[in-house]
Design brief:
Elements (H helix, E strand, L loop, with lengths): L1 H8 L2 H12 L1 H5 L3 H11 L5 H13 L5 H28 L4 E2 L2 E2 L1 H5 L1 H20 L5 H22 L5 H26 L4 H26 L2 H5 L4 H14 L7 H23 L1
Helix pairs in contact: 1-14, 2-6, 5-6, 5-10, 5-14, 6-8, 6-10, 9-10, 10-11, 11-13, 11-14, 13-14
The structure holds farnesyl diphosphate and magnesium ion.
The site of magnesium ion has 3 residues, from loops.
């Protein structure tokens, strides 16, 4: 957890701004009866891992942002966290899950109909933010990410006895591609060179693989078990991700990116011990 705190502290000011905007998004979004639904959802925020990836990647390239770049980054972070939220709301409907982040899911409290619509509203809000930005990067990258996430979810539902290769392709599509896109978008805002953009994109992809394999090992995911996937496979992706950012200049932001990697892999041991 210390590693996670260190990584988030490196971008604390920006993360607080993102959190503030998200906590008030229901006022801006929709009033009346639906307000309660959004308030309930945002009462229990996540870790802001994806906004952290955007901010740390950008600052690893360019520690001092212009005001315009900073505003651009904050807007990207808000949009990306809304898309992530929408995907979790829909994922819990698909998986029939009644608990997440220690509280009942929207489908558990308000039913599937309201939950589908709430996810759609957050999703629309996110793309409204991206569409209002000064460059098309956010919109272009995130529409491709969502397409890949949906395709991966369909594949997961269709091929319940898929091979190891299929398992890896599915987790790449449903989780890793999103994290990779966050790193890419942060790098683009910082005007990173081509090689740096690719390096951060690869780091994000490998971090995403670590994240989903760790989650699946902890949850006892059947596709992972069937394919003999263990935490050692996640460790292989940790090594790859470390190599990806080798060429990026040392800074607290780059350190933040490596801290995130270790936080994810170490969460396995701490959660297994607790269980
Ligand atoms: C979590 O997997 C699920 C995802 C990472 C992606 C879910 C994506 C969709 C439902 C499609 C995209 C939809 C929108 C609106 C963007 P999991 O069930 O293995 O993990 P969990 O333990 O967190 O539930
Ligand atoms: Mg799920």
């Amino acid at each position: 957890m210390l590693r996670f705190i260190e990584a988030s502290n490196a971008v604390r000011k920006e993360l607080n701004e993102v959190e503030n905007i998200l906590k008030n998004i229901d006022e801006d979004l929709i009033k009346g009866a639906s307000k309660e639904v959004f308030e309930y959802f945002f009462k229990n925020s996540g870790k802001y891992l994806r906004p952290m990836l955007i901010l740390l990647s950008a600052k690893a390239i360019k520690p001092d942002m212009t005001i315009e770049q900073r505003v651009h980054l904050i807007n990207l972070c808000v949009a990306v966290e809304l898309i992530h939220s929408a995907s979790l709301i829909h994922d819990d409907i698909i998986d029939n899950d009644l608990f997440r982040r220690g509280q009942k899911t929207l489908n558990g409290v308000y039913g599937r109909k309201i939950a589908v619509l709430a996810g759609d509203a957050l999703f629309a809000k996110a793309f409204n933010i991206l569409a209002s930005m000064t460059t098309r990067d956010g919109e272009q990258v995130m529409t491709q990410v969502v397409e890949k996430m949906c395709v991966a979810e369909i594949e997961q539902a269709q091929y319940s006895e898929g091979s190891r290769k299929e398992y890896l392709r599915i987790i790449e599509g449903k989780t890793a591609v999103f994290m990779s896109a966050c790193c890419k978008l942060g790098a683009l805002v910082a005007n990173a060179g081509r090689e740096e953009v690719v390096a951060l994109e690869k780091y994000g992809l490998n971090l995403g693989m670590v994240y989903q394999i760790t989650d699946d090992c902890l949850d006892g995911d059947l596709n992972a078990i069937r394919n003999n996937i263990t935490i050692d496979n996640a460790k292989e992706f940790v090594v790859k991700a470390e190599l990806d950012v080798e060429g990026i200049e040392s800074s607290i932001y780059k350190e933040g990116l490596t801290n995130l990697l270790y936080y994810v892999i170490e969460s396995y041991d701490s959660k297994v011990k607790k269980a």
